[in-house]
Amino acid sequence: MTILGWVLDGTLAAVLLLLALRIIQVRGLFQAVVLFIAFGLLMALAWVRLSAPDIALAEAGIGAALTGVLLVDTLHYLRWTTEGRPKEQESPTPWPIRTPGFWLRLATGGLAAGTFLLLVLVLLELPGGPAGLTSVVDGALPGAGVDHPVTAVLLNFRSLDTMLELAVLVAAVMGVLSVMRTPDFSGLPLPATADGVVRWLLRSLIPLMVLVAGYLLWLGSFAPGGAFQSGVVVAAMGVFLWLSGRRSLELLPAVVRGTLLVVGLSAFLVVGAVLLASGREFLEYPGEAAAGIILLLELAGALSLGVGLTALFVALHPPGEGPPPIDEHP
Amino acid sequence: MATFFVGMALFLFLNLLAGLVRVVRGPEPPDRMLAAQLLGTTGVGILLLLGEGMGEPALRDVALLFALLAILTVFAFVERPAESEAEAAEEGEAA
Amino acid sequence: MTGLDGLSVLLCLMGGVFYLAGTVGMLRFPNTWTRLHALTKADNLGLGLVVAALVLQADSLPGALKLVLIWVLAVLAGTNACYLVGRHLLAAKERAGEGEVPP
User: Fold this and answer.
1) Is this complex's ipTM strictly greater than 0.90?
2) Average pLDDT, chain B
3) What is the pTM of this model?
4) Considering only CB atoms, which residues of chain A are within 8 Å of chain C?
5) A60, B62: Cβ pair inside 8 Å?
6) Cβ contact, residue pair A244, B79, below 8 Å
7) Neighbors of chain C by Cβ distance (3+ pairs < 8 Å)
8) Are A163 and A227 in contact (CB under 8 A)?
9) For chain C, which has fewer Cβ within 10 Å, the N-terminal or C-terminal residue?
10) Residue numbers of the domain that contains B30
11) CA A1, CA A91: separation in Å to the nearest integer?
């Protein structure tokens, strides 16, 4: 690696650490959230430098943007519920935080430092250069149905793991929906924006995002992309609509909503059952149909992910009035 | 040429860091909202340059996503403002 | 180094100059309004020049078009973000009673 590469990576690593420190010690929560989003995007850059564009895509989408928007929204909502309206307050935090005692902090810090040292030791023991299962995966790639090794691993060789990840998503969304006061999504926290520019933005961006989601889904067969990245864009669409006060999930009949949420997991189960019935192992794809099966599973997974993540955003407010937006324009 | 592009990416990265200083210091909330836009344009530039310099065309798709997410993040900041001016003034003194 | 490469380097360096200008503006300008302008205008132009440099290096026409599309999207994002933040800042200033009108 060139000198420039080392300088870039070293600076990136140092900045990530400093930013993490700053996020922990800064007092204003909005500051912390903004820095957290910046941290997430810089992490995506780190993944890029580690030659892992798939993870970079997922990190930027979920870790930085969606989680960041969730945090901003939570902060806004917390402030509204504790004070009634966003006005002056005595302390930067909306609720009193009890700082843990000295011994607890020492123990936690010691545990974190010990884990870090163990990880460093493990890293030093790793053999240099490409190792692990790279050669095995590359050897099995021709019959996998896709050209991209990451997609082949996620959707073919280890598709059981992906199925279980989708099951976790379904469980999480069901958990959130079960604490909502009205599970029928009838509450809309924001009035629809009357702002002309925002409406133009929505009209231009939503169709473009549909296109990008489809593109990323199709891309997964031969380049970094696939179900998770595509699902992130679908979720971003839903979040966009929700932030501007427009209904997306609420318009769908409940049956359709529920179906979309579980279609990812169900697709895996149905495909597995069919394969079992035809004499193969669970989720062992026949060679010639592998490409089609993988695309189908990715489509179902992307839909589930997008709908599930959007449901998490939409569901987190009780019905009726929410915090009013500050910018009211006719 | 590849080295030049990586060097330009490094230069843009240093610009990004300088911009982050404003995000950390900026006395008012909108100064901090600039973070999303800063990362949106500078981050896209870095990714495109690294894509050429590292020989990874997939980074262009990451850049595409960055641009989309930048506007989403700013939208969230603006539609869900979560900081009052009194708190900002207090943080300006405390920082 | 061919002429095309030289042109790419030149365009890239010019883009870098604009990025630097945007960063300096972001750090040194006196208030949020001007800082917003510095960031949006200069950085987007810098990105445009960098994309122009990369387009010259592109292998295929679809690749070059994709780069231009990414630039268009970034400009879209940047200008709308500038508008949104400016609108929010104006509303915040009016609420605080400062009534400052941007220059």
Assistant:
1) no
2) 81
3) 0.85
4) 195, 197-198, 201, 204-205, 208, 326-329
5) yes
6) yes
7) A, B
8) no
9) C
10) 2-84
11) 49
